[in-house]
Design a protein that fits this description.
The protein is 37% helix and 31% strand. It is of the alpha+beta class. The strands form three sheets. Strands 1, 2, 3, 9, 10, 11, 12, 18 and 19 form a nine-stranded mixed beta sheet that branches. An eight-stranded mixed beta sheet has the order 7-6-14-15-16-13-17-20. Helix 1 runs parallel beside helix 10 and helix 12 (365-380) crosses helix 13. The longest helix is centred in the last third of the chain and has 28 residues, at 330-357. It starts with a strand and ends in a 5-residue tail after the last helix. The structure holds arabino-flavin-adenine dinucleotide and P-hydroxybenzoic acid (PHB).
Length: 397
């Protein structure tokens, strides 16, 4: 779908990828007078059909508010001052407000994406959907360009900079020569089987449960739409999980006092997301700058994926605007280092939360004792709880 107008032959920034990173960057650049175009491989209905993240850090909420895209977020988003952690011995609350004076907002990534698309349409930003065969050219020159096709037509757009916001499976990261990239990754032998159900959430705040049967998470999208996850082996197939089988297993992994309150409903989405970690360094090469999943993937346990994408956008927008207004490219030169510093902090926290809460299949008895001790340290000490609250609500940019 070609929205707004025809494809420009030159813009200041070509943004590859119309997910949350690309869309927020486009909105911020446009509001500061920088012209851009978004090239998105999929149709808009397809992009808006994806069910992904659910929790926004305060920094992400602030960015959306400053970008003038937070009206519905403030009307419909659920501000949470804490969350529950549970195991076989019961549950306890992490009080974000008391520990670090901050909160998070529950508002689905799908809704954030919808709000951003609507804002960009009203800005008149060209968004090319179903852009095929996107290729980046001259990224290590002063005259980069991007070509793509759509239907039977081929297009070429000259630009000053390219923002690679095209996710883990995009073309941008791979456009950086392999010899110039260093990649770090760790995979887990399990994933998250997630369901979206038309039923009221079992609790008014999120519950992270570490049970002997495996991890479970009780989340939500709104007072009538719940989001639940259970840890399953990578070998599992979502089609083998009926709704009844899922609800039965979820109840077994929640504290009894909570499980008995679980209201089930029609399951409107069911899928398994892999639990993996990935970082590709650097996040820039010549005139190409990577944002979000194009450069890094964090386990969803710490609710950091979407928030890290917005963190990158904060740094890249800041750097592009400085260069645009003053010609000073220093922040652009430091972009990768600045963004990666926060990426690795979020990666550390996400790995820590994942190792704390999941049943690690090949863990030794010694490792299980250490995991139990770590969990009781969080439960029994203010410092332990404050460490979790500080990272979960979002470290400063
Ligand atoms: P995205 O992947 O969202 O967007 C990239 C866009 O680029 C896509 O629209 C894609 O179609 C497009 N694209 C790809 N290749 C292209 C090409 N060659 N040309 C043009 N466009 C191209 N995070 C959390 O915090 N909590 C969660 O619970 C959570 N659950 C997740 C579940 C799943 C199944 C997945 C895959 C991710 C989940 N995440 C979660 C992480 C997720 O929210 C990402 O962090 C977030 O989408 C990152 O946004 P972007 O960087 O914009 O990447
Ligand atoms: C979600 O609601 O999808 C969600 C919430 C918190 C997480 C991960 C996913 O840590």
């Amino acid at each position: 779908m070609l929205s707004n107008q025809v494809v420009p032959k030159r813009v200041r920034v070509v943004i590859v990828g119309g997910g949350p990173a690309g869309l927020l960057l486009a909105r911020k650049l446009t509001r500061d007078g920088m012209d851009c175009v978004i090239l998105e491989r999929r149709s808009r209905p397809y992009v808006l059909s994806r069910i992904r993240a659910g929790v926004l850090e305060q920094g992400s909420v602030d960015q959306l508010r400053e970008a003038g895209v937070s009206q519905r977020l403030h009307e419909e988003g659920l501000v949470h001052g804490g969350c529950l952690l549970s195991d076989e011995n019961g549950h306890f609350r992490i009080d974000f407000a008391e520990l670090v004076g901050k909160s998070v907002t529950v508002y689905g990534q799908t809704e954030v994406t919808r709000d951003l698309y609507e804002a960009l349409d009203s800005d008149g930003v060209p968004i090319v959907h179903e852009a095929g065969n996107v290729r980046l050219h001259g990224i290590d020159t002063a005259n980069p360009s991007v070509t793509f096709d759509r239907g039977r037509l081929n297009y070429s757009i000259a630009c000053n900079f390219i923002a690679g916001c095209d996710g883990f499976h995009g073309v941008s990261r791979e456009s950086i020569p392999a010899g110039a990239r260093k990649q770090f990754e760790k995979s887990y032998p399990f994933g998250w089987l997630g369901v979206l159900s038309e039923s009221p959430p079992v609790n008014d705040e999120l519950i992270y449960s570490r049970s002997g049967r495996g991890f479970a998470l009780a989340s939500m999208r709104n007072p009538l739409l719940s989001r639940y996850y259970i840890q399953v082996p990578n070998s599992e197939n979502a089609d083998d999980w009926s709704a009844d089988r899922f609800w039965t297993e979820l109840r077994r992994r929640l504290p009894d006092s909570i499980a008995e309150c679980l209201e089930t409903g029609k399951v409107v989405e069911k899928s398994i997301a892999p639990i993996r970690t990935f970082v590709s360094e650097p996040m820039s090469f010549g005139r190409l700058f990577l944002c979000g999943d194009a450069s890094h993937i964090v386990p969803p346990t710490g609710a950091k994926g979407l928030n890290l994408a917005f963190s990158d956008v904060h740094y890249l927008h800041d750097a592009l605007i400085e260069e645009y207004r003053s010609g000073d490219g220093r922040k652009l030169k430091c972009y990768s280092e600045s963004a990666l510093a926060r990426v690795w902090k979020s990666m550390r926290f996400s790995l820590w939360m994942t190792n704390l809460l999941h049943r690690i299949p090949d863990a030794s008895e010694f490792e299980r004792r250490i995991q139990d001790t770590e969990f009781t340290h969080i439960r029994d000490t203010v410092n332990g709880r404050a460490l979790l609250a500080e990272n979960y609500t979002g470290l400063p940019y």
